[in-house]
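User: Hey, my collaborator sent me this sequence without any context and asked if I could get a structure. I don't really work with proteins. Can you help?
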Amino acid sequence: MTLPFTLQQLRILKAIATEKSFTRAAEVLFVSQPSLSKQIKTLESRLSISLLNRENNIVSLTQAGKLFLEYSERILALCEESCRVLNDLKTGDRGNLIVGASQTIGTYLMPRVLALFAQNHPQINIEVHVDSTRKIAKRVLEGDIDIAVVGGNIPEEIEKNLKVEDFVNDELILIIPKSHPFALKKKKKINKDDLYHLNFITLNSNSTIRKLIDNILIQNSIRAKQFNIIMQLNSIEAIKTAVSLGLGAAFVSSSAIEKEIELKTIEIVTIEDIKITRVLSIISNPECYRSKAVDLFYNELWTLKNTSN
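Assistant: No problem. I've predicted the 3D structure and written it out in structure-token form, which is a compact way to encode the shape of the chain:
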């Protein structure tokens, strides 16, 4: 279907209605008056109806002209909005962003990043997926997730096809109850051998995070398998609660205990000559289209990295 009008003709009608003069409307639109008059005559001819009254050099809208002007203004407004939206999408001010995170990061670190990003870019729609590192990495490879931050080991067959960048170091912290003898020392520092005399609370043995923590401890010459494990729970929140109630000690991510530190519900103990850390990674698929929204989020992550150093 061919429309009986052009956008320029709608702009001309709107200008005439506003200025109430062909001459002033032509000046506003930077066109000649004869050209403007010709466009209006063509428009009225195609619509088969009169839009303007021309009496004694006074220009006014007919009833049909008033009705058509209402729709013309709506059409022009939508056209302008569509251009703004496309420009916003191009510059990153609008769009959709799908972010992934491994479990601990998604629970404790990512919400702070997303809150800041949403505050700076409120018109970008954000969707977040939290799962194991393996599953998140697989979805990034498949293009279902734009960008992700993970802390676990990425399977080699997936990693080789991804862009993997070191993000920040996440320290594993040893937390104990405030009532524990170690907590009552002025200098809350122990040696590695002291670890084997603690009662530990851990995640379930089949937990990906538990396996990751055990591997990191082993890399630091700490024999995690020789720990006296008195309790296995299914969440980090449950572990923190158990420690605060005096049931035992635990290794947890530093990003997971900010609230407990602030409320002083647990104590932190350092191990002599050892700092246990893991590297968090930013992953993306270099073969997938990278929108401005993804670039903005990526920059937000690196801003966080630089301020945390």
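In plain terms: The longest strand covers residues 163-176. You can pass these tokens on to your collaborator as they are.
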